[in-house]
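RECORD TYPE: inverse folding
INPUT: structure tokens
STRUCTURE:
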């Protein structure tokens, strides 16, 4: 008997609505129709939340060991279905199978599930002095609304779902309308191992997400996406006061100090900026390079970038793909055109083939660009990196901190102590040294300023989807 784990076709068939119904889903690399999706209506949202609410007490009543074991089984199921899942992801999102892309994302789903299952969260004894005894426990919140974006549609969904389930909550997930098949495929595989009602999914555009955020039976919202939508969610949450975690991307700065070795850092800079073809919340989005090594850094980075093949995701040689949708193509295109108009120097790329199929925007590096250029101050979320010249480290730090964004940042130097001093002065949730965006399930991750609030991953991430309770006495 064929199961959905067996092949791409079987997995797609398992999540496809009856013939003749649903909206078409197109491959962003070719424009071809690759499947169909049936979107939810708001009544479906209420029904999914009711199901999650009904299932939550029994799920919470299981022991932590049981829930952890089930998360490991869910990770096993993803491993069994790894290649069909990677194909759905590659074809719908556009990211290549190869490189740090689709297969890598499936691997990350497994790693985050297993790590979330294994993260210890012991009861915290706060005071034990002979007269006072107080402990801090973490209890389930209830029903979590998990609203995901289209850039890493499976991995980010797992970031939201895995800790929520571990802590005894049930979930109503909503994939982005741009990557609904990826969300549905992942959840279908997870649900092979999860008890009924624990993980539910609704699909559709922003109004379906909004219906989740305003429902009185939603106790916690996990959101990753744009700052504008994050602000709408906070406003919507004023009615019922669910807890909210917001991961809103941003405009990560990288600062290359004068003592950095351009050749040694070139590949790290490239992947920091261009992973997932730049469509990454914590990608390097503006690079500040000291005048003394500016030209050399631009040259070696351009050499690395020029060699990275971009194309259709199913072609194994490619490591960069198209942008996922027209909206994102238009944003990148507008920002690069405005940089050109302001006199910045396009060192690589910058000339998309507008007649070719798909949303391909070539790998683009823009040098000699002003601090106030829109390509610097707005989030491009695509393969176009501005490289800004600076003369004093104080100035570079001031520019890095000038924007209302603070997810990640990086400092590049041959002197770790010096780099750490600079890192301490940057307003960002994470500052990497000699790498960028190298997230790890054991290390908490979250933004400051316009990049949102709340931590994900590790024990801090578990606490974030739980209610703290002090037992005093
Ligand atoms: P959005 O913030 O609109 O979308 C993220 C998720 O929120 C999607 O599932 C979306 O649904 C949903 N949503 C939209 N409106 C609401 C609402 N009012 N209430 C609840 N949920 C809602 O991002 P976009 O796709 O529009 O991308 C816009 C920009 O956001 C990009 O250009 C990029 O700069 C940034 N971005 C950042 C990401 C990150 O990782 N931090 C990821 C993606 C985008 P639907 O898509 O189905 O409409």
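DESIGNED SEQUENCE:
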């Amino acid at each position: 008997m064929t199961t959905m784990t067996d092949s791409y076709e079987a997995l797609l068939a398992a999540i496809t609505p009856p013939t003749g119904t649903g909206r078409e889903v197109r491959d962003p690399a070719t424009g071809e129709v690759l499947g169909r999706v049936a979107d939810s209506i708001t009544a479906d949202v209420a029904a999914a939340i009711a199901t999650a609410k009904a299932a939550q007490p029994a799920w919470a009543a299981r022991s932590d060991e049981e829930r952890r074991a089930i998360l490991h089984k869910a990770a096993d199921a993803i491993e069994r279905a790894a290649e069909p899942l990677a194909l759905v992801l590659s074809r719908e999102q556009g990211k290549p199978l190869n490189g740090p892309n689709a297969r890598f994302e499936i691997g990350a789903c497994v790693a985050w599930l297993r790590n979330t299952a294994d993260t210890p969260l012991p009861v915290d004894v706060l005071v034990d002095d002979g007269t006072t005894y107080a402990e801090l426990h973490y209890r389930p919140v209830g029903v979590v609304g998990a609203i995901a974006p289209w850039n890493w549609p499976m991995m980010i969904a797992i970031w939201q779902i895995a800790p929520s389930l571990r802590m005894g909550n049930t979930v109503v997930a909503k994939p982005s309308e741009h990557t609904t098949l990826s969300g549905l495929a992942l959840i279908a595989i997870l649900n092979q191992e999860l008890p009924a009602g624990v993980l539910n999914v609704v699909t559709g555009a922003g109004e379906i997400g909004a219906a989740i955020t305003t429902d009185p039976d939603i106790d916690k919202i996990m959101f990753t996406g744009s700052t504008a939508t994050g602000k709408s969610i906070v406003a919507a949450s004023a009615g019922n006061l669910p807890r909210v975690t917001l991961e809103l991307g941003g405009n990560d700065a990288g600062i290359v100090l004068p003592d950095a070795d351009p050749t040694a850092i070139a590949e790290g800079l490239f992947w920091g900026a261009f992973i997932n073809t730049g469509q990454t919340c914590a990608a390097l989005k503006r690079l500040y390079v000291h005048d003394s090594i500016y030209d050399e850094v631009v040259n070696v980075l351009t050499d690395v970038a020029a060699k990275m093949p971009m194309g259709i995701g199913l072609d194994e040689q490619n490591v960069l793909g198209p942008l996922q949708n027209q909206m994102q193509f238009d944003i990148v295109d507008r920002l690069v055109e405005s940089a050109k108009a302001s006199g910045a120097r396009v060192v690589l790329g910058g000339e998309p083939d507008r007649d070719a199929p798909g949303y391909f925007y070539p790998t683009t590096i823009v040098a000699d660009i002003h601090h106030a250029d829109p390509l610097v101050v707005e989030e491009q979320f695509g393969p176009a990196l501005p490289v800004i010249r600076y003369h004093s480290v104080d100035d570079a730090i001031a520019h890095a901190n000038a924007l209302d964004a603070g997810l990640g940042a990086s400092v590049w130097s041959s002197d770790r102590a010096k780099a750490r001093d600079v890192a301490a002065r940057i307003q960002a949730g994470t500052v990497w040294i000699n790498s960028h965006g190298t997230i790890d399930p054991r290390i908490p991750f979250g933004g400051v300023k316009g990049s949102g609030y709340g931590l994900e991953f590790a024990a801090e991430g578990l606490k974030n989807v739980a209610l703290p309770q002090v037992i005093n006495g």
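NOTES: The radius of gyration is 23 Å.
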